[in-house]
Design a protein that fits this description.
It is a single chain. Helix 5 crosses helix 11. Helix 2 links the parallel strand 2 and strand 3. The strands form three sheets. Strands 7-8-6-9-10-11-12-13-14 form a nine-stranded mixed sheet. It has three domains: 88 residues, Rossmann fold (3-Layer(aba) Sandwich); 200 residues, Mur-like, catalytic domain (UDP-N-acetylmuramoyl-L-alanine:D-glutamate ligase), CATH 3.40.1190; 131 residues, Protein-Tyrosine Phosphatase, Chain A, CATH 3.90.190. It is of the alpha/beta class and 444 residues long. It starts with 7 loop residues before the first strand and ends with a helix. It is globular and about 65 Å long.
């Protein structure tokens, strides 16, 4: 546990992780200063209560009067304030790096372009179900800094981690690192350079050593090409492999050098789709490495009901099912979503574009989607891409999209919000977007 007493620490970004980091710094007797470019003053009360100094509406010279800077994930790495700090030789770290300095428990870190939230929640559910105390945090629910001091030496913290959080790690070292997949996402933050995004994801393995575990999807071509990995690498796959977890005869099987174990049938999962089989396999590996028995693992997996805003059934009206997949903020997520159903789909697509390439889902949309309702700032791009493939209608709001979809829907159809885009042009975040969708559906 590092001693940061009397250190001057600047925190950039006054959202959840930034405020949590400021509170943790204060608790550890440092001197935090919070600076936010926006005028969102919702957190001022918390800062005033602790006597933490702050500024809103821009970054002043005070930002650079510090021993180091903690950056929130929402602050772009090419922001002027970051470039200036780097030029001045000031150390910049992410909130997960900072919180990890004070973690006495075992860190399980999960990243990937898709499946992070489900895998994190499933892992947390499985460990707690099997009698181990664990916490879920990071890019999900609670910030790492909010709960880190609660995690005891014999307990676990499971972190959902984004590429933005990995960009500024230094010593961050998880005992178990999971890399689920890498597909083009957030390219607007990486100057449309996929290789930079890939490098960012692999930083989760950067500080691991021979006593740590790197768990990865060997069906992912990008991951399969990785070289010079640290730690003990254990793969998972939908095809039989030489070691690790794989699917065969509708069973999850675990193979090591000596034995092959049948863990449980894949159909015990309440969360459907191939992508969720991958998510489950990553968790099974961790459970096996922690010595949990197969019957408990099976019961834990079978009792997990899924994550809000990810392929969530809202309700069925007149045989039409409404699916909230607001968490699908990239094209690959929509690919998995469409493949999870056999019914005809009316798709609500759009939001803030992140450099999307829709060719990945073009064949699936042509085959399974009846109509696209395009919303948000990317509606023109969606309309121009798909108009010659299927019917596309641009609409002014999510509510209009839902109501029009319901008007044309028939018994057996699925109306699905799976936007492939960020939410920030119309909503606070994907949770807000999903909650609005659900309320609209409940009001029908």
């Amino acid at each position: 546990m590092k001693n940061i007493a009397n250190k001057h620490i600047t925190i950039l970004g006054a959202v959840r992780s930034g405020i949590a980091a400021a509170k943790l710094a204060h608790k550890m007797h440092a001197i935090p200063f919070v600076s936010d470019y926006s005028n969102n003053l919702s957190s001022i009360y918390e800062l005033d209560e602790l006597g933490i100094k702050y500024e809103f509406g821009g970054h002043s010279e005070n930002v650079f009067d510090c021993d180091f800077i903690i950056i929130s994930p929402g602050v772009p790495s090419d922001a002027k304030v970051i470039i200036e700090a780097i030029n001045r030789g000031i150390q910049i770290i992410s909130e997960i790096e900072f919180a990890s300095w004070f973690c006495e428990g075992t860190i399980i870190a999960i990243t990937g372009s898709n499946g992070k939230t489900t895998s994190t929640e499933l892992c947390n559910h499985t460990l707690n179900y099997c009698g181990l105390k664990s916490y879920a945090a990071g890019n999900i629910g609670l910030a790492f800094s909010e709960i880190v001091l609660n995690v005891k030496a014999n307990e676990f913290v499971i972190l959902e981690i984004s590429s933005f959080q990995l960009d500024f790690i230094d010593e961050f070292k998880p005992k178990f690192a999971v890399l689920l997949n890498i597909t083009p996402d957030h390219l607007d933050r990486y100057n449309n350079d996929f290789n930079k995004y890939v490098e960012s994801k692999f930083k989760i393995n950067k500080n691991q050593n021979k006593e740590d575990y790197f768990i990865y999807n060997s069906d992912d071509k990008v991951l399969l090409e990785a070289k010079n990995l640290n730690g003990i690498a254990i793969p998972f796959s939908l095809e039989e492999i030489n070691c690790g977890i794989y699917v065969s005869d509708n069973l999850f099987k675990y193979k090591n050098e000596e034995t092959i174990e049948n863990i449980c049938p894949i159909n015990i999962l309440q969360i459907k789709g191939e992508h969720n089989q991958y998510n489950a396999m990553s968790v099974i590996i961790i459970a096996k490495l922690l010595g949990l028995n197969n019957s408990k693992i099976e019961s834990a997996l079978a009792s997990f009901k899924g994550v809000e805003h990810r392929l969530e059934l809202v309700r069925t009206i007149n045989g039409i099912s409404f699916i909230n997949d607001s968490k699908a903020t990239n094209v690959d997520s929509v690919w998995f979503a469409i493949r999870s159903f056999n019914n005809p789909i009316i798709l609500i697509l759009g939001g803030k574009d992140k450099g999307n390439d829709y060719s990945r889902i073009e064949p699936l949309i042509a085959k399974h989607v009846k109509v696209i309702y395009a919303i948000g700032s990317s509606s023109d791009k969606i309309y121009n891409y798909f108009q010659n493939i299927i019917e596309v209608q641009k609409v002014g709001s999510l509510e209009e999209a839902v109501k029009k979809a319901y008007e044309i829907g028939k018994n057996g159809d699925i109306i699905m919000l799976s936007p492939a885009c960020a939410s920030f042009d119309m909503f606070n975040n994907y949770e807000h977007r999903g909650s609005v969708f659900k309320q609209i559906v409940m009001n029908l």
